[in-house]
Design goal:
Layout lengths: L13 H21 L2 E9 L5 E9 L29 H34 L2 H35 L8 H4 L4 E7 L3 H25 L19
Antiparallel strand pairs: 1-2, 1-3
Helix pairs in contact: 1-2, 1-5, 2-3, 3-5
């Protein structure tokens, strides 16, 4: 009853096919966010009319307030320890860690579908557990992606043109500062899009998992004993 029976049939059905898509998209989610490294730069003009470029590297998990800007060669007495603004590690790590757990769950679910579908459908508890997990995961995709999307907006502000407005010597007029460039955040934008696509996939998959549960297909009543009236 519980022996392995490998069968690719379930991946030809919506239940298994969507699970494969969820597995693939979870990889895109944590790879596009967790693998990002960026760079921003601004230019300062010293009193000697010598321009100097300050390059700032940042990466996942985006603890920007721990990144110190190196002191320019200009003789500026007001330039103390200067850091970027914001710590967005909680939202970024939540998003990436959750995507990794989803990736692992999809592998476990596919093993169950492809090798033990006979057990999955004969034991009513497995579809119900799968359904509950699917609903919870769909909700957590909404929460984690929304939080990460808000954090990404704040990261863009902290590393974008507003950066020079937060540097004390630039703000007080001791230096003329000009924002220069920032590395593209295209992969981070993709991570947000993929996060919401995962939400759609898991929300849609909830219906197909629900159809496997006893809530949708109640067990047939037991036949009456022979001779019973």
């Amino acid at each position: 009853m519980s022996a392995l029976r490998f069968d690719l049939g379930p991946v030809k059905e919506p239940l298994g096919f969507i699970k494969v898509l969820e597995w693939i998209f979870s990889i895109f989610a944590f790879a596009t966010c967790g693998g990002y490294s960026g760079k921003t730069a601004f230019e300062i003009m010293c009193s000697t009319n010598v321009n100097e470029t300050i390059d700032i590297d940042f990466a996942y998990p985006f603890r920007l307030n721990s990144i110190e800007l190196h002191r320019p060669k200009c003789n500026i007495s007001t330039w103390g320890k200067t850091f970027l603004l914001g710590d967005f590690s909680s939202s970024a790590q939540f998003f990436v860690t959750f995507a990794v757990f989803v990736f692992l769950y999809c592998i476990a679910a596919l093993v169950l579908y492809l090798g033990y579908m006979h057990l999955y459908r004969s034991a009513g508890k497995f579809p119900m557990i799968d359904f509950i997990i699917t609903v919870v995961v769909a909700f957590l995709w909404l929460v984690s992606t929304s939080a990460w999307a808000k954090a990404l907006t704040d990261i863009k502000e902290s590393t974008g043109p507003k950066l020079v407005q937060e540097i004390l010597p630039c703000k007080e007029g001791h230096l003329k500062c000009y924002f220069k460039e920032i590395r593209s955040m295209g992969s981070l934008n993709v991570s947000v899009v993929v996060g919401f696509l995962n939400l759609i996939l898991w929300a849609g998959n909830a219906w197909f998992v629900y159809k496997e549960t006893s809530l949708h297909n109640p067990p047939a009543p037991a036949p009456n004993p022979a001779g019973a009236s």
